[in-house]
Design goal:
Blueprint lengths: L1 H16 L4 E5 L11 H8 L5 E8 L5 E3 L3 H8 L11 H4 L8 H4 L11 H7 L5 E6 L6 H11 L7 E5 L2 H10 L4 E6 L1 H4 L3 H11 L3 E5 L11 H9 L3 E5 L4 H9 L4 E4 L10
Parallel strand pairs: 1-2, 1-9, 2-4, 4-5, 5-6, 6-7, 7-8, 8-9
Antiparallel strand pairs: 2-3
Helix pairs in contact: 10-11
Length: 270
């Protein structure tokens, strides 16, 4: 009996220690290609990273473009006049996100600003796009749906995330089959797990994707918070973890997915 208990405990211990966490490539594998581009996404996907996160805006003419913010596209392109809301599908073709010396050092001379269609066309079977909605409108979800249908993308290949409550609620209503996670900064994580659980229920979403550092002091989200979220039947993801010891910590407390700028580097830590 004693021998059986020891063996059982050993098996359980091995199971826990070998728990695999999903790695999410933040804005693609951006150490190897310009961030938030198809090239960065493909580098991650074709190097064994299933989940790639990228940001998407709906422009004034209803084009869905992959971009984090005006500051980023201006820095990468060298064009200070660019404004995401004014972009069109045609104008995206001429915007070079490899004009910055840092991107040229990665071996790129021209990388266009991508549309959602281009991301979806590039996605291999069984890969997943973690789609961050940066803005939202009455037509946003409909335009996402049009891209999905044009590219014959399976809904199982899309996970939605957003800091915006209207986007989380609207996308879950439009795509009930897809997972939707509410993004939380450190300040909102500090409100506690009960607040997050109530908010998820209010929005009808599947879980939270939290900033693992709660403040400038480096206070980390704790296992108790993670356990409460998961015990409520919600998903628990974390962002953006770029140190090995902190990656392992987030894995230890039960994060189901960890977003990082070093996706391929951290693959062995899964």
């Amino acid at each position: 009996m004693k021998k059986f208990l020891v063996s059982t405990l050993l098996v359980v211990s091995m199971t826990i220690s070998s728990f695999a966490v999903d790695i999410v490539a933040h804005r693609g594998d951006n150490q190897f290609a310009p961030m938030n581009t198809v090239e960065a996404a493909k580098h991650a996907w074709f190097n064994g990273i299933k989940y790639v996160e990228s940001d998407f805006y709906e422009t004034d003419d209803k084009t869905m473009v992959g971009a984090h913010c005006n500051k980023t596209i201006r820095m990468l392109s060298g064009d200070e006049s660019l404004d995401i809301k004014n972009l069109t599908e045609a104008s995206c073709k001429n915007i070079n996100l490899a004009n910055h010396s840092r991107e040229q050092a990665k071996g790129y001379k021209f990388v266009k600003l991508p549309t959602l269609d281009e991301f979806l066309w590039a996605m291999p079977p069984n890969a997943v796009l973690v789609f961050e909605a940066k803005n939202f409108s009455d037509t946003y979800a409909d335009n996402v749906e049009k891209s999905i249908k044009r590219t014959n993308t399976k809904l199982s290949q899309i996970v939605f995330i957003s800091f915006r409550e209207d986007a989380c609620k609207g996308l879950k209503k439009k795509f009930p089959q897809c997972k939707v996670y509410f993004l939380l900064g450190g300040g909102k994580v500090k409100k506690g797990a009960d607040w997050a659980i109530a908010k998820c229920k209010e929005l009808g979403v599947d879980g939270v994707d939290v900033c693992y550092k709660l403040d400038k002091k480096g206070t980390l989200v704790c296992a108790e918070y993670a356990n409460k979220i998961k015990d409520a039947g919600l998903g628990f993801w974390v962002w953006t973890v770029n140190k090995k010891e902190e990656f392992l910590y987030c894995k230890k407390i039960g994060a189901e997915a960890i977003t990082t700028d070093f996706a391929t580097k951290f693959k062995p830590l899964r």
